[in-house]
Design goal:
By secondary structure, this protein is mainly β. It contains no helices and 10 strands. The strands form 2 sheets. The protein has a 5-stranded antiparallel beta sheet with strand order 8-7-6-1-10, with no helix packed on it. It is globular and about 50 Å long. The termini are far apart.
């Protein structure tokens, strides 16, 4: 996800959500506290003035890895429910302009069994 020079106080996405966008794991950028938070795992992160934000998010069942502008990484575990794969974007204290969202399904590293 690429966000154009955000001004919101807090913004991000919820991943592993149900079909209503609820019960997910929150990925949040909090400008005032200069924090990137994934679930309950915080890490220091601050955008430079006028800088766009690029979040790369990788999900493997319940494990969520987030990379912010190729200079900060945070990993957290969420509740895994196979049918919960929705994503919900949010912002508080200002608007955000999402320039780009890409989604790809990753292939397994394990070879398929002869039965599949």
């Amino acid at each position: 996800m690429v966000v154009k020079s955000p001004v919101a106080k807090e913004f991000g996405m919820d991943v592993l959500c149900d079909k209503n966008g609820d019960n997910g794991l929150r990925v949040a950028v909090m400008a005032e506290s200069k924090t990137l938070k994934v679930g309950n795992a915080p890490a220091p992160f601050e955008l430079k003035k006028g800088e766009d934000l690029t979040l790369r998010v990788f999900i493997d069942k319940n494990l969520v890895e987030v990379f912010a502008n190729d200079r900060q990484a945070v990993v957290a575990a969420g509740k895994y429910v196979p049918e919960n794969f929705a994503v919900n974007l949010f912002s508080y204290g200002g608007d955000i302009l999402v320039k780009q969202v890409n989604c790809s399904k990753m292939k397994s590293i394990h070879p398929q069994s002869a039965k599949d």
